[in-house]
Amino acid sequence: MSAIPDKPALEGLESKWGAVWEETGTYAFDRKGATRDDVYSIDTPPPTASGSLHVGHVFSYTHTDTVARYKRMNGKRVFYPMGWDDNGLPTERRVQNYYGVRCDPSLPFDPDFVPPHDGTSGKTIKPGDQVAISRRNFIDLCEELTVEDEKQFEALWRTLGLSVDWKQSYRTIGRESLRASQLAFLRNIERGEAYQAQAPTLWDVTFRTAVAQAELEDREQPSAYHTLSFHRTDGGDDILIDTTRPELLAACVALVAHPDDERFKPLFGSTVTTPIFGVEVPVLAHHLAQQDKGTGIAMICTFGDVTDVVWWRELDLPNRAILGFDGRIISEAPAAITSEAGLAAFAQIAGKTVFSAKQTMVELLQASGELTGEIRKINHAVKFFEKGDKPLEIVSTRQWYIKNGARDEGLRERLLAHGKELEWHPDFMRVRYENWVEGLSGDWLISRQRFFGVPIPVWYPLDADGNPVFDEPIVPSADQLPVDPSSDVPAGYTAEQRGVAGGFQGEVDVMDTWATSSLTPQLAGGWERDEELYGLVYPFDLRPQGQDIIRTWLFSTLLRSELESGTLPWRHAGISGWILDPDRKKMSKSKGNVVTPAGMLEQHGSDAVRYWAASAKLGTDASFDPQNPTQIKIGRRLAIKLLNAAKFTLSFDASAAGTVSEPLDRSMLAGLADVIADATRAFEAYDHARALEITESSFWTFCDDYLELVKERAHGGTGQAQASAVTTLRAALSVYVRLLAPFLPYATEEVWSWFGEGSVHTAAWPATAELDEFVGAEADAGLLALVGSALIGVRGAKTDAKVSQRTAVTLAVVQAPEADADRLRLAASDLADVGRIAELRIEAADTAEVRVAEITVESAE
User: Fold this and answer.
1) Bridge partners of residue 856, in order along the sequence
2) Per the database record, which ranges form the Methionyl/Valyl/Leucyl/Isoleucyl-tRNA synthetase anticodon-binding domain (predicted)?
3) pTM for this structure?
4) Are 291 and 363 in contact (CB under 8 A)?
């Protein structure tokens, strides 16, 4: 036990106790002799190691930590790892900006390369000024920067007091993670769950990569309707088409209207020619055509939007794609354009961006008279990559997919059944998962045309002409993993056969970052690496995460576990809400309204910040105003009060402590037993905020009422009455410190060190049974509140008399209903002592509540 300081303070507790916890292994996971029933395992979110953490991280990770601490105090061996999500676009973008470089895979590795910039000068490097470097050099910089970021993240997490076992950390780009990710993918291939296909693909022209459905977001964008004239081949009147994308006219393959639209029924099966290019295309019917949109008939281009893809597939149309991976019009015109005028028009848009091509096409259409009426400006929703700055295009590419239930009804139903089996906290979040699964429109596209990620572990044989045979991929054996096909050689080949006819070529794409993160239970739990550990932790007990990644992280993890083992990966899902700025907008880096937590922790202390975070229920959004952090200030006041109340409580002579005999003391402990029961039920229901609310309210009653009422008896009393007060104070302090430990780990550890053994965080969670020996069967749990009401009345009467609370009272008459008057008399001496009342009369009266009917204070003379 440590000495109680003269002036307890919160400052310095983080560094003091953080070092002790690390040295003593307070939060270490001990598997020795454990069974699965002994373990509580958490599939902790691995934060993206690119840039800095923000206040939203502190918010949600604190929620998880309160549960981890509660379960540990309940005797569970808590498996609480921390992962780092290293790979993916955020890391690459940060490396580009930090070092002033960009990756060019065609360049050779330079072992002596020194980046031109180190990110510390604050200078902004424009994309055009970034130095091109080899893929290996680029990946080395990614590795270097993420390691540094992770050190800073870990330091902040430690300051916040997360009870993580840092020996259980992992990196999504680490060797073991690479192996597990590639092994799971190879098993997906073996079972027919992973496949590759040449198909229209949502494409980000800035990042030059494919984008999955889960990564899309709609953004309102300005646009305009252009009315074009298509010419009927039978000589009839022109058909007018409204389009926002005249630049794709050369890619038109058909016109389409709703099958029930009487205006166009006579035209179905006929043909028209396109303006400018003179290509003959059919007029077709499809139920997705909207009769009330534009002119009621649309042109199908390959590809303007996702509906074009559906029409192209279901109507079996040709592919005349004209957009390249760079977002520009390709140089070669579609084969369907054969006229000299059409080819000349295409040459005018070839190589241009879609914006410039649109301007050119409008000019050509105006000159030909095939643009009818005025151009009408509109705003409409356009699909973006969630991290992108330009609208997505659709290009035809060969990509790898994993089946996700979009086209497999049996798999979809199993995934929905798992969603019902999973315990959601709060339960209404289940609907978001179900809506996502039911709304899936395509399998999960997992290949990415990026550099820093888990390589897709396949090679392709080259035929006699040097063309890759994509339908016969070469896969490594499990004992070869991990591999990088861009540099490693498949079995049966030599390095000299790379890129040579009859040889092989390696896959250069990497996996979507979610394809790795979807395996966090496997990565953290030692799947196919440490079977003993995996058996102890899987399926995990808890998946904590944000609501915005239910469709990505939660769904993809559940999918991979279903494909691999047919099981749920966890029993519970705890979904945190968002942090909102003072204008009630979600905080995000992209909006520039985030608050970094380091300054908050330093200014207010970790316990205060944790209190603010823990005050919010799961699934509930919380606003945060850094200029007026009211909840944080309340949390700091609570932590300071705990230190001071503990010092005060422990100052009384405890030599005779052991028995509780006084009715007021028994009432205090009886009420506290109810608090234990209620807080425990709240935690078991994953309602940490309710547990904190119950505990905090009771603690302030303890400080404001009980401490005041018994301090005279505890300090100056004699015999059993004094011993009863001190026994109660110490018993209550022990309980409150443990109840508050999940929320205020530093203040509670400091207080515990003054009178307890070991760490409060490995002490037993309080149980009502430990108070039973003190309380007895006749304890009146409501007595303390009743006496507290009388005390408030006495204090109020003194205030009304304009005297200090220390002024002596000659006479006080307290009235209460008859039953309550009898109860008040049981604690009359304590009430008289704290009120400095010479004569206290407690009278039964016809009143609904306790009130001070008369008070006479001593004169100042």
Assistant:
1) 811
2) 665-809
3) 0.84
4) no
